[in-house]
Amino acid sequence: MPLAPGALACAKCAAAVVWPAAAGPVAPQTFRHGGLSPGDRFAAMGMDLALAVLTGGLGWLLWTAFLAKKGQTPAKKLRDHVVINSKTARVVGAGRLIARELIIAAMFLYLVVGAIWGYGPIIDVGGYWINSWVIPSVVVVAIAIDITWMFMPAHRRLVDVILSTNIVHGEGYSYQTAPAPKRVVA
To answer: Domain-by-domain residue ranges, the chain?
Structure first.
């Protein structure tokens, strides 16, 4: 959520943000709130899925590995989105981006593979009810909560909250070269 003109604190969490004079081109806003709209997020997810299918997964994976240092996936690069650390407003490292994408891919693959072959053989920890009903129910509820979380005012998925990330428009801002803002809790 952009700060109001002259405001020095976030209206949602009351955290004061002090921007140094040499902050460069980073927009004065708190990046913990106000990520991309759910429509933008779903468009990027659909584009990533389409690119993964078109390239057999391998092309998308290699392209993502190439872009990971910039905090982007192929769709985020094409749509000018950047994954940033929500606490420091800096581009996330390759490790955090890869972890985020692996969590999202694992959830998606679990749904697809389970719909095709059945959920029982995927995770076999014992018993028909556990393999066929309990584990799939827990995973489906977790995925539903993750996606539903995007519709809250901050527009962040649950995986973003857990990993302290957010997705913002790149808009030509140089997140990597600008100094991180100092966060002062009032």
So the answer is: 35-178
122 Cβ contact partners less than 8 Å away, ≥ 6 residues apart: 110, 113, 114
Which residue from 52, 49, 53 is spatially nearest to 62, judged by alpha carbons? 52
pTM (two decimals): 0.69
Cα gap 67→151, rounded to integer Å: 27
Write the pLDDT tens digit of every residue in 136-179: 888 889 889 988 988 888 888 889 989 988 888 875 444 444 55
- CA-to-CA distance for 9 and 174, rounded, in angstroms? 23
Nearest of 21, 22, 17 to residue 32 by alpha carbon: 17
Residue with tokens 């996936």: 73
Between 149 and 34, residue with greater pLDDT: 149
Number of neighbours of residue 73 by Cβ within 10 angstroms: 27
Task: Please report how the helices 94-117 and 135-148 are oriented relative to each other, as an axis angle in degrees rounded to 10.
Answer: 130
